[in-house]
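Structure (tokenized):
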């Protein structure tokens, strides 16, 4: 436990932070109906959406894990970030105009119009699966840090920590939905970036470096290399491999993700939504560069003062725990102020992603499976149903996090998270086929193709070194998954003029 801060002070800060979130929820959630909950009645300020999306995109995984990646990957992650820019350009110029033209609440409604009901339900189901596992994993990472450094000292069990965190999310989102999220995400993005900036400043002071000296120190270190053109496609850090993967990840995990697009669809017009996407893209590049700079400084500072790398037990063997590097230094080796802002940043990073995910899951299920848009809420029963669905997904996140905890094997959990990432491949294949091919498909067979594609991708990844002469996949698996789905849809397709 940190010596500079008492557990009571940390809990008071967390409580004060959530009091502010609940206060925001109270004012933004007054007299909200389903339209407000799902799309804020399309009145969200574009600049607020753009800033808030930074926190939702980065999430607790970025806040904790990216600084720790620097030792193995250096700044090569920026190659993928530059690929994001291409993906965001496609989203702003191709996907968003289509979403606005069709006046969509759930973006998966497009699949029903293009292919049929089975494709529509399949796409939405894959989103629900992906987002449930992804949001649970992000909250899990934050929960174990809170448990390790705070709650454990009060005798609170892990399940109690998880229940508390999810309950707090539910409290400030159940009433206002996306109308509240737009404001709380902006606040949480500010807290997260403030934590990183202040940590960088304090480390610079500890190392007796000016701003220029700090930049030069990072630049001259072994961690700062960004571009890797050598090694060919077999090299994980190869520029072209990372760049293309970044573009595809941005298109799928932002443009084809209800969670991320719901905020964009809450803007007043397509023009404001596109303006939001442009500024979001620019700021996100600098935000990721900031996190990588922090990672380099953490390793440099640890080496200077002799801080040992945190370790954890994996498969019966003690291995470096890079995810705990930032929390260990922030909470145990820097100033009390940094300890405070780290806790705030950690909570903000986790909740800026989880709160919007919970709202998006509720929206998708209500629109795509309960057909809210095809019904009239004359007696208020649909609002009550939405309330139950929101509560149900909160409980589901709680249960999935406990499953992660009981597995208690980082390698297995990481694999589960990777498999969840595979489920975005079918969405990439479905939308790509819909945009680039004029053919129709046998709609009833779409679920078979979309289920088979991730399985084939998983097997291909497991045996890639044997089947592909030593080649090992990395982030480009998403492209492979989408391509397999595309080919499968092509097999079950027929000319648009034919009758099936």
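Design, position by position:
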């Amino acid at each position: 436990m940190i010596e500079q801060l008492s557990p009571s002070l940390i809990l008071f800060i967390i409580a004060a932070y959530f009091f502010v979130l609940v206060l925001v929820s109270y004012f933004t959630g007054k007299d909200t109906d389903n339209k407000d909950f799902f799309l804020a009645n399309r009145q969200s300020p574009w600049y607020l959406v753009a800033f808030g999306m930074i926190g939702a995109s980065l999430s607790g995984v970025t806040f904790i894990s990216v600084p720790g990646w620097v030792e193995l990957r250096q700044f090569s992650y920026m190659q993928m970030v530059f690929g994001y820019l291409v993906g965001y350009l496609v989203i702003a110029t191709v996907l968003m105009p289509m979403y606005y033209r069709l006046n969509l609440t759930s973006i998966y409604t497009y699949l029903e119009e293009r292919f049929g009901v089975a494709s529509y339900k399949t796409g939405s189901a894959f989103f629900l699966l992906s987002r449930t596992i992804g949001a649970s994993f992000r909250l899990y990472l934050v929960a174990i840090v809170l448990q390790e450094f705070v709650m454990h000292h009060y005798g609170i069990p892990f399940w109690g920590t998880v229940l508390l965190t999810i309950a707090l999310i539910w409290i400030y989102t159940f009433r206002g939905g996306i109308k509240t999220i737009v404001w709380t995400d902006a606040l949480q993005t500010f807290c997260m970036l403030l934590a990183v900036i202040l940590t960088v400043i304090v480390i610079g002071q500890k190392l007796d470096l000016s701003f220029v000296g700090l930049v030069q120190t990072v630049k001259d270190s072994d961690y700062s290399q960004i571009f890797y053109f050598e090694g060919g496609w077999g090299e994980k850090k190869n520029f072209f491999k990372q760049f293309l993967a970044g573009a595809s990840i941005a298109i799928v995990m932002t443009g084809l993700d209800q969670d991320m697009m719901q905020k964009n669809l809450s803007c007043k017009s397509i023009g404001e939504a596109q303006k939001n996407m442009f500024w979001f893209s620019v700021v996100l590049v600098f935000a990721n560069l900031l996190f990588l700079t922090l990672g380099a400084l953490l390793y440099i500072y640890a080496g200077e003062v002799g801080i040992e790398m945190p370790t954890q037990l994996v498969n019966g063997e003690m291995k470096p725990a890079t995810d705990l590097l930032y929390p260990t230094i922030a909470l145990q080796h820097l100033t009390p102020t940094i300890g405070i802002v780290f806790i705030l940043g950690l909570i903000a990073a986790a909740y800026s992603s989880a709160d919007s995910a919970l709202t998006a899951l509720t929206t998708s299920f209500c629109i795509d499976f309960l057909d809210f848009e095809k019904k009239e809420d004359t007696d208020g029963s649909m609002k009550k149903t939405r309330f139950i669905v929101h509560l149900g997904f909160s409980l589901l996140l709680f249960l999935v996090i406990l499953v992660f905890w009981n597995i208690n094997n980082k390698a297995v959990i990481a694999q589960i998270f990777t498999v969840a990432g595979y489920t975005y491949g079918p969405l990439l294949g479905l939308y790509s086929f819909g945009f680039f091919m004029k053919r129709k498909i046998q709609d009833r067979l779409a679920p078979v193709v979309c289920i088979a594609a991730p399985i084939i991708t998983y097997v291909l990844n497991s045996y890639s070194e044997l089947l592909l002469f030593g080649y090992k996949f990395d982030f480009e698996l998403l492209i492979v998954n989408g391509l397999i789905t595309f080919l499968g849809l092509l097999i079950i397709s027929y000319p648009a003029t034919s009758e099936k």
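Reviewer-requested clarification: Residues 270-305 form the longest helix (36 residues). The mean pLDDT is 82.
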